[in-house]
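Following up on my earlier thread - several people asked me to post the actual chain instead of describing it. Fair enough. Here it is, all 168 residues.
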Amino acid sequence: MPAFTDLLFYAFAGLALLFGFLCVANPFSRSPVTSAMFLVLTIIALAGLFILLHAFFLAAVQILVYAGAVMVLFLFVIMLLDLKEEDRRKMRGFTIGAGALAVVAIAGILIRAVIAAQPLAQGILVEGETKPLGKLLFTQYLLPFEVMSLLLLVAMVGVILLSKKEIK
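Reply from S.P.:
Thanks for posting it. Predicted structure:
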């Protein structure tokens, strides 16, 4: 019989996958606001996984920064534009091709990083402490940290461009 933490892991992981899928391929509504709300639920499920890993600081940051500030910003931009579905821009072949190329490039980088990944230096991280995490984040992992900030910027610009009316 699996332990309670194992059941919680499978529940949070399943919810994260389900809400992530519903964020991208939303069968309930074509509204970007609905997709953004599913993204908030995905972020909350990921925070639950961080809590199971005893990474309480990361869980709090996940909720406060991503589910709070970033999603409020995305929702503000989406609602500010407030476009009807028929007014949204049609996807062109170049746009779909560029998006597919970006997805393949990011997937390649992720696979390469996972293959080349080495475990963290033994004995550096003490469970639940933020000082060693911050030191690692801003020394050894500074480039991935900055790449993530650029990805957030690109996502914000993408929301604006996808919601923008086509100029006739």
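Residues 4-82+118-163 form a domain with the Four Helix Bundle (Hemerythrin (Met), subunit A) fold (CATH 1.20.120.1200). That should answer part of your original question.
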